[in-house]
């Protein structure tokens, strides 16, 4: 496959890896506590050069962690997975997806 087509199809060296997560917010968490957590997450992602696409709806916060172009590394995934799971004071349950191809066609 030619380089131009690999780039267009996000294959080979142009593959983009990321992961999803979902966290159920505890009922007793106020907006200030959640906002502080979001700010902390934002700073961490910014330091790592990563982005998050997500939302909060009916007490569930979820999203996908990506890099604008390129791949989230296994080391970054491990660090963020652990960081997300460490916040038991904010969440009842945290589910972190595996590192996967964000352009998969299944």
From TrEMBL:
Pfam families: YggL_50S_bp. It comes from the Bacteria. This is DUF469 family protein.
């Amino acid at each position: 496959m030619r380089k131009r087509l690999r780039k267009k199809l996000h294959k080979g060296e142009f593959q983009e890896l990321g992961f999803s997560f979902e966290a159920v917010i505890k009922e007793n968490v106020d907006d200030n506590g959640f906002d502080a957590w979001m700010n902390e997450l934002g700073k961490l992602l910014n330091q790592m050069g990563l982005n998050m696409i997500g939302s909060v709806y009916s007490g569930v916060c979820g999203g996908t962690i990506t890099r604008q172009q390129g791949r989230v590394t296994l080391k970054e995934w491990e660090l963020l997975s652990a960081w997300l799971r460490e916040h038991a004071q904010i969440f009842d349950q945290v589910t972190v997806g595996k590192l996967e191809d964000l352009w998969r066609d299944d």
